[in-house]
UniProtKB/TrEMBL annotation, chain A:
GO terms for molecular function: ATP binding; ATP hydrolysis activity. It comes from Streptomyces triculaminicus. Belongs to the ABC transporter superfamily. This is ABC transporter ATP-binding protein. SMART domains: AAA. PROSITE patterns: ABC_TRANSPORTER_1 (PS00211), ABC_TRANSPORTER_2 (PS50893). SUPFAM superfamilies: P-loop containing nucleoside triphosphate hydrolases (SSF52540). Residues 19-272 form the ABC transporter domain. GO terms for cellular component: plasma membrane. Pfam families: ABC_tran, oligo_HPY. Keywords: ATP-binding, Cell membrane, Membrane, Nucleotide-binding, Transport.
Automatic annotation (TrEMBL), chain B:
GO terms for cellular component: ATP-binding cassette (ABC) transporter complex; periplasmic space. Residues 1-29 form the signal peptide. This is ABC transporter substrate-binding protein. Keywords: Signal. One of its GO terms (molecular function) is peptide transmembrane transporter activity. InterPro entries: Peptide/Ni-bd, SBP_5, SBP_5_dom. It holds the Pfam family SBP_bac_5. Residues 109-500 form the Solute-binding protein family domain. Gene3D superfamilies: Dipeptide-binding Protein, Domain 3 (3.10.105.10), Periplasmic binding protein-like II (3.40.190.10). PANTHER family: ABC TRANSPORTER SUBSTRATE-BINDING PROTEIN, PERIPLASMIC BINDING COMPONENT OF ABC TRANSPORTER. Coiled coil: none annotated. GO terms for biological process: peptide transport. The keyword Calcium does not apply.
From TrEMBL, chain C:
This is ABC transporter permease. It is found in: Cell membrane. One of its GO terms (molecular function) is dipeptide transmembrane transporter activity. It comes from Streptomyces triculaminicus. Its main location: membrane.
Amino acid sequence: MTTAPVPAPGHPPDAFLEVRDLRIHFPTDDGLVRSVDGLSFRLEKGRTLGIVGESGSGKSVTSLGIMGLHTVGQYGRRRARISGEIWLDGKELMSADPDEVRRLRGREMAMIFQDPLSAMHPYFTVGAQIVEAYRVHHDVDKKTARKRAVELLDRVGIPQPDQRADDYPHQFSGGMRQRAMIAMALVNNPELLIADEPTTALDVTVQAQILDLIRDLQQEFGSAVIIITHDLGVVAELADDILVMYGGRCVERGPAEQVFHRPQHPYTWGLLGSMPRIDREQTERLIPVKGSPPSLIDMPPGCAFSPRCPYADVPAGGITRTERPELALVPGTDGHHSACHMTHEERARIWTEEIAPKL
Amino acid sequence: MATQRNSRRALAAGAALVVAALVGTTACGGGGGKDGKHGGKAPGFNAGIDKVASASDKKGGELRFIGTQDADSWDPQRGYYGFMWDFARFYTRTLVTPKAAPGKESRAVVPDMATDTGKVSADKKTYTFTLRDGLTWEDGQPITSRHIKYGIERTWAQDKISGGPLWLMQALDPDKTYKGPYKDDSPDKLGLKAIETPDDKTIVFKLPKANGDFPQMLALPAAAPVRPDKDTAEKYGQKPFSSGPYRWVSYTPNKGLELVRNEKWKRESDPVRKALPDKITVKLSTNADDMDNRLIAGDYDLDINATGMGSAGRQKALQSAKANVDNPQTGFIRYAVFPQTVAPFDNEHCRKAVIYAADHTSLQTARGGPDAGGDLATGMIPPSVEGYDPGYDPFRLKQGKPDLDKAKEELKACGKPEGFKTTIAVRNNKPPEIATAESLQAALKKVGIQTDIDQYDGAQTTGIIGAPKNVKSKGYGIIIMGWGADFPSGQGFLQPLTDGRFILDSGNNNYGEINDPAINKLYDQAIAETDPAKAGKIFQEANKKVTEGGWYLPFVFEKNIIWRSSRLTNVYTSDAYNGRYDYASLGVAK
Amino acid sequence: MFAYIVRRLVAVIVMLLVVTLVTFGIFFAIPKLTGSDPALLYVGKQADPETIEGIRQKLELGDPVLVQFWHFVSGIVAGRDYTGGGTSVHCDVPCFGYSFRTEQDIWPVLQDRLPVTLSLAAGACVLWLLGGVITGVVSALKRGSLWDRAAMTVALGGVSLPIYFTGLLSLAVFSYGLGWLDGEYVDFAESPGEWFGGLILPWVTLAFLYAAMYARLTRATMLEILGEDYIRTARAKGLREPVVIGKHAMRSTMTPVLTILGMDLGALVGGAILTETTFNLPGLGQAAVKAIGDRDLPLILGVTLIAAAAVVLANLVVDLLYAVIDPRVRLS
């Protein structure tokens, strides 16, 4: 991800994936749920973007939006209101024919879901499900497709893939299932891979294996990868860039190195503070993010994080509760943006004096 | 349990009525129906009563019966249902048979297989019959006097041939010394002493005691011949071997049966049966409303059971096709009876108090009103039985309303001026009877007689109200029942209900347990009398004693509404068959 | 899988034996306790004590229930003779009892009646599955639309209206009124055309009732399944929507439908009493009604057994099908 300003709407970008001012709102009986409310970012091939945030921050909604899954299969539900632009490899997806987007799905962009047990159909064998994914986009016979499926299962580290292909999802262990899920996502060599909480359902050792696998595969295939997680540790391992979401908006984004070492938003501090670290002894949690995520129907005025922010009163005049901070470049950085009313100096002081020592 | 069943039945009936109302306009009714299903024009309301409607000798066609109740058995010696006796004339013949003529005329018996109605000896104890020429079985072999004797003997084998009437057994061998043909040691199985067959054409009956109704008994299907080599004992009813103009083709219990013309039957040998249709079918249904609708639509010709149309069908028929309807007397009396073993009904005045306090019009309405229920009854001999007196009405029941003053008087005379408590026993499977019980309950309350209604299992009648011990222990002071004669005489009607010598431990019909030597003596006299008119006078006497004794509260002389399709010819109701049409005379117009 | 089937079959046989024993108890032991005598049901109005005793012996009413039960069960495989009062009646193998009411073996009656009920059940089943499942799926896919609301309102009516109402109504309109369908049952072997014609009304009426239930069930299940993660996965693969619905969603939707279908079919074979009575179909249900009215205990017992067997077998078939459909059942 670079920090170059977003070009004018309607013009194709030079980046592989570019999301411009994405808004995804769901009308409900209780009111309009603003799950994603003006999100923009870009991603180059071969790079990995980590989207971080609590549940309900709009991460998954964003990924499904890119896949175009908010517009199909919404039988009888009130349709999501979607605006903005999604450019993938020079094509704008929002205005494209739905069937064209469908053909891109699974082939150019693929997704790995959070819970591989519920994400795979319990009545079909793993092999059959991968074969199906391949044959949607490739006009080949079953035998060829099966060969390809076995090859992928082998590649993601399933032992005896030829036999295991005939097993059902429930016969796989959690880690194996996630590998199979990854094999299914990769079977068509997608150029964009979205992994939505790929390791949440797995135990810690398996988590590491899966993350290694994703990294290896990315290097091998050269795809662009979006990792969605609430766990900064996962992104720390994989991501080149990090985007922190809160209440449907981006509150901080930038190169992983910078976001980790000089985070510029109190929410990010909170996330870092609640991150378990293997390399350090567990001490008191300094900055847990207190309170609960904001209602997406009735957002707090001003900074969405202000009700939970310990520093909400640092900027004078209660501006945090009246005016929404815009995403702004952190002075002296290359593409590190943050949306906070505090001045750069105030944030630098708090980070170095109060937060960093306790992490 | 019973209440639930009834409410469900009521619900179903209600649904039927709603449906009938909804589609009332679409049904064409009028006996018009579909093409080809109807022949002539319907001859009019009650055209089949006391006269022949659509008289015709035209042969051919299929006579289509429908019904909701299968016969208890089609075995001539085992059937006891009235419609089975009527129908049996299609495939069985007897020495004598009810005259094939409308109404009252049918009460007489006329020669059938015999050349005359029998030569009676001077002591009236010996009847000799000679068989006609040309009598044959369905395989062409001749019917002999031995076959008739064998058939009659079967009734004695009560372990296998159960359920049928026992009149012949009681008249010929009251002590039951014979054990029946299946346990008969004689080679020809004809061991019954009371019947002699000196040759193939002659049969002699020797009665221990004179019985003026003996020819009536010989007219029952129980006196029909059975050929020993064709006797399948208890299974004979599955496929009786025919001696009549039609033979059995197929029969499935509760589904239906089919008869076709018996080509071996010789018309000239049979002075009674018209045998007009080529084929006779009976379809058995479970849905009475459906049956009525199909009759009205012209799919079938008549209801074999002839128990009367249901309320929905009745309304529809009377409104739109009255010309296809007859409203005959069924020969039944519906009544309440007061067992005198149950206090306080041992006291005549308490019985009479109930008779006066009852609301007779309300009871008639509970039975279905004047058309479907019948005329207000005044005594215990119905109009279709010899001895009926239209002017006789000692309790002035024809007024149709309770006489509360008289009722209170009687209660005082009984020593219960404040009334008393008793139980009404009623069959749980007969809605009109339950309705009459409820009417009675309401009326009696007004004079202080409190009653509980006990709805007992209607299929267990013989063991419940038919067992005097049980009646006494349960305290059944009032029993609701009905009775129709096996044959239209006082012996068939009144005697089983009121002769003290007929009180049985089980299967009793003399529920009042009347045992009056004067009444019993009248029966002996009447039975010994061979002139039906004279006998009728004596039964009339007995009726007076019974009625005035106050054991019975008659509700109605039953009538019902029966359907006759427009195709039917030669239709008339017969007193001998309880107001049913004389089936053996029916024909169909194409 | 084989062991599973064998185990289930053994369970079925045990189950049927238990049902037989219980039915036996109800029909023969309880009347004895309450003091009424089943023998009286089989004799005429004026039977003498000797005759009643003969019937009592034939019915083995004096024997313990377990002995009666054993004779009944052994009669099925070996046939049996009913002896009493010096005479006897033979009942052929397989002897499911002998009706002293109609003087015939029970088994041929059941054989005669079963095809009618099977015809009714099978035809109606095809109709209601087609109608119900299609309606339910379309309603689910068009949730909240006019179609959905109309279909669900009709379905609610279908579930609530008793068969004797819809049955009588359809008879009144199509049979007595318009005269289109005679509605009389004819054996298939006799005339397939008339068989079909005679069954159309009962099929449609019965199917209407069940289709309504199945439409509601299918709709609810389909809506639930459409929210499953694996449906999202199927879409994420780029599958066409008809494939997503027809293959992935339908396969899961059919599981609960099949479960209910097994029970319904079983129960229906046991006695579509109302339908058979209303439309006058000479099936098992009608036989049961008649038998109850006539107090024909052996026939009631026979029908009860067939009904129990049908329910148990239908459930067995469903369980086996379940295993075929759902690998988790099969492999665990």
